[in-house]
Structures are given as C-alpha cells and as structure tokens.
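Renewal narrative, Specific Aim 1. Our central claim is that a sequence can be written position by position from structural information alone. The example that follows is taken directly from our test logs and has not been curated for this report. It begins with the structure tokens describing the chain, in the order in which they were read.
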C-alpha cells in the first residue's frame, strides 16, 4: 500500500508508482483527469511546504478511492512493474488466473488496442521441449481464423516469462454465468452457445488442432451473445491428468470435463476428447450439475472411468430427449462410441435446435444397445455352451467392421449355421423317402 508503506522509498520510485496509480484510477473511472489534476497540484503544494504525502493518501482523503480499491490497484501496479519487460505492451489489470498461468488485460501500444496476455510461470521455460511445443502450437493457433475462437496474436518471451497475446474478450465466461445465476441454462440458450463452440472445434480439428481443455471457464460470451472458445492451442507442460489435479489443488475446479483417455494418460489424444469435454460442458449447462461429482479429484476421475452417466433428462425432466441423446453419445466412455467427427455432433445439435431428432446419435445409440444386448445374452447363458465374447469385441459396436473369422465364431452365427445344417439333413432325408416311395 503506497499510503501506509513503512519502507522509505526513493523519490523517483515513489513518483513512478504515483504516476502509475494516477493513470489507473482515471482508467478505472474512479476519478476524472481533472480531479486527478487537483490531487496532484495539492500534492505538489504540500511538498513545497516539506510535507510529502503520497498520491494514494490524497485520493483516499478526498474520497475518490476506498482502501479496498487502493489495495487492488497497488496489486496491479506491482504486476505492471514485473511485466513491464514485455515490450510493446502496457499491463492494465489482472483478468484472472488458472492452474497454470495468469491472464492480464493489456494495451498493445503499436496498434492501440486492448489484448489479453497469458503469462506462463517462469518454471515452464525450463523444459526446451515445452518451449518448442508452445511456439509451435502458438503458430498453429494464430493460423486459425474463426469468429468463435479467441484470436491468437503473438507468443514471446521477456525477462524469463513466456507469454501468449490474444484477443481481449469483453464479457463473462459460461462458468461465471452458471455461478452468478445459480441455475441451469434453458435448453435453447445452451444449444445456441454449444453450437458456436462446436463450430469453433470443427474449424480447429480441420487444422489438426485439438483443444484438450474445453470447459465452461474457457467459453467466453460477449455482450452481444457470441460465444468464443479461449485457450485454443496452448501447449501443456504437464499431462492432462496432472493439469487437472493442479487445478483441483488450487481450487480452480476439479477434473469435471476431462475425458477418460486423458485421465488414463493416453498419448494419442484426438478430437474425440474434445467431443467428450464439450458433452460434459453441455451437461453442466443444461442440468446445473457437473456430470460426475465426488469429494476428491481422484474420485471424480474414477467416476469418469467407471460410473454410468445419469441421463440429463432424468435431472431436468423438461429437457428434450434429443439433447440428452447427444450428450450421452458425446460422453461415451469408449471414444469409438462417440461421434465420428465434430461435424457429426454439430449436425445433431443443429437438428435438435430446429426441433428435429438427432439422427446420428440415435444411430449410434441403437448400435450400442445392440452390442449391449449381445453382451447381456452372452453373460446370461454362460453354461449353455455359448461362448463369451472376447473383451476387445465387447468394446466394438461397429458390427460391420468385424473380421469374417470373428463373425464365424459369434454364438449367434454358430447357432444359425447349426440350424442350417440341421435343415439340410432333414430335407435330404425327406427327399430320400419321397424318392424311395415313388413307384418304379
Ligand atoms: N482472451 C481473454 N479475454 C478476457 N478474459 C480472459 C481471456 N482469457 C482468459 N480470460 C480470463 O482469465 C481467466 C483465467 O484464464 P486461464 O488462465 O485460461 O484459466 P482458466 O481457463 O482455467 O480459468 C478466465 O477465467 C477468464 O475470466
Ligand atoms: Mg482459460
């Protein structure tokens, strides 16, 4: 706090803090520049009388700022000093912090525009592999051009900090909205948002970029209702599971939207992980609840892997069957049972928004119930000589793609073959009898 800081400050340092403070109070509309001018003249007058008072003191005494506002502003001043090394940008305020980084609002001096700068912690620069990936993905993200993706402007390093400059989005995140309103989104409104995010993902996936962290906190809604997906293409220092645990540890959330394969630490995470997370996000939006909740992050992860999803329309009974089916297919534990592409999911979302059924979800739902019935039949009669399905066959719902050999050993096929042979033998016997009875 400049006003009650006990440490003696050199005049130049204190003047710099004062001028930053002056700029910030005007920028944040706590007082006008004329009012600031009056405070500064008063400060100069007092100084001439050998009575040095900080600008903070004077602003406080005049009622322009409260102690709390001053505390907040002096926090920004400290940060601004720390990140003043980022050339070409002027840090204005802190927008928020996630598990891995802090986001600041800043002015890009050359273009005189507001931007958001994500500053990664210094320790991230220790791994050369991470740094390379960060720049690579930054470049890839900068190539994306979509109204529903927060634009990536620049990546760089200054004073040992890696940073990512992006489009500044005025507005709230879907997470903020859920917390502030305390109730679920109406179906139509949720669909309007998720359709836009799905369009963003179709675009990103077509360029080979996987988001890996689709969640309500990464969806920003502008004042005119447009959804923008943030953090596209940000490289991860740690594995997905570690990031999720770090978030939980810092109370930024628990791994509520993470796909089972990310939890298992699989290396080849593809677009289907984003489909799962988008489904989990939609689940939260329309039910007001996360899909799986438990007291610890590890228990939440366990549920993603093992527990059956409570269908969304069992929680909010006014939801359409269609939206529930979309969510259930998107959140299938086995990635192969999810949508075959993000465009498929988009076409179902658009169908439900028009009041039509989600045909692709329904087809995949039918196939999975068929596979389930087949599995149940096999487990119900294990001692009637019916062979159990091998585990990897249990996972497959695409019946058409099984090998001929697999099809031939299917208990149903075996039974049919048996019946066929039996029928041929009967017919042969009948024929022999008829032929023998014919008069010669
Ligand atoms: N481009 C942006 N424009 C405005 N605010 C942003 C932007 N990106 C992030 N934020 C804000 O900063 C917060 C922290 O972001 P981030 O570090 O990505 O963490 P997380 O996504 O886990 O919340 C977000 O919740 C959001 O409120
Ligand atoms: Mg984010």
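The sequence written for that structure reads:
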């Amino acid at each position: 706090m400049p006003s009650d800081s006990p440490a003696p400050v050199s005049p130049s340092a204190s003047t710099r803090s004062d001028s930053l403070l002056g700029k910030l109070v005007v920028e944040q509309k706590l007082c006008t520049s004329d009012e600031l001018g009056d405070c500064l003249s008063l400060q100069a007058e007092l100084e001439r009388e050998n009575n040095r008072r900080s600008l903070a003191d004077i602003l406080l005494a005049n009622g322009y700022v409260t102690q709390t506002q001053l505390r907040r502003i002096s926090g920004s001043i400290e940060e601004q000093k720390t990140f003043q090394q980022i050339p070409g940008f002027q840090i204005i305020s802190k927008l928020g912090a996630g598990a891995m980084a802090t986001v600041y609002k800043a002015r890009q001096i050359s273009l005189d525009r507001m931007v958001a700068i994500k500053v990664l912690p210094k320790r991230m620069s220790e791994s050369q592999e991470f740094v390379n990936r960060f720049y690579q993905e930054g470049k890839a993200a900068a190539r994306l051009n979509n109204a529903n993706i927060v634009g990536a402007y620049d990546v760089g390093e200054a004073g040992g900090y890696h940073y990512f400059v992006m489009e500044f989005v005025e507005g709230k995140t879907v997470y903020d909205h859920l917390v502030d309103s305390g109730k679920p989104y109406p179906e139509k409104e949720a669909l309007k948002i998720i359709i836009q995010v799905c369009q963003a993902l179709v675009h990103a996936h077509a360029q080979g970029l996987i988001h890996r962290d689709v969640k309500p906190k990464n969806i920003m809604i502008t004042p005119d209702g447009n959804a923008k997906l943030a953090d596209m293409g940000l490289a991860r220092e740690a594995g997905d599971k570690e990031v999720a645990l770090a978030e939980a540890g810092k109370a930024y959330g628990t791994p509520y939207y993470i796909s089972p394969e990310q939890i298992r630490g699989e290396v080849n995470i593809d677009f289907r992980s984003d489909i799962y997370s988008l489904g989990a996000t939609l689940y939260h939006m329309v039910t007001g609840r996360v899909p799986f909740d438990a007291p610890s992050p590890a228990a939440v992860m366990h549920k993603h892997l093992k527990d059956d999803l409570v269908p969304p329309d069992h929680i909010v009974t006014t939801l359409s069957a269609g939206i529930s089916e979309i969510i259930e297919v998107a959140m299938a534990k086995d990635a192969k049972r999810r949508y075959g592409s993000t465009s498929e999911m988009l076409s179902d979302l658009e169908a439900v928004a028009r009041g039509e059924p989600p045909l692709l979800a329904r087809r995949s739902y039918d196939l999975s119930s068929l596979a389930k019935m087949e599995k149940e039949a096999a487990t119900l009669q294990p001692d009637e000589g019916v062979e159990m399905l091998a585990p990897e066959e249990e996972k497959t719902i695409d019946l058409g793609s099984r090998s001929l050999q697999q099809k031939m050993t299917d208990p149903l096929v075996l039974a049919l073959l048996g019946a066929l042979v039996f029928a041929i033998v009967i017919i042969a016997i009948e024929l022999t009898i008829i032929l023998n009875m014919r008069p010669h």
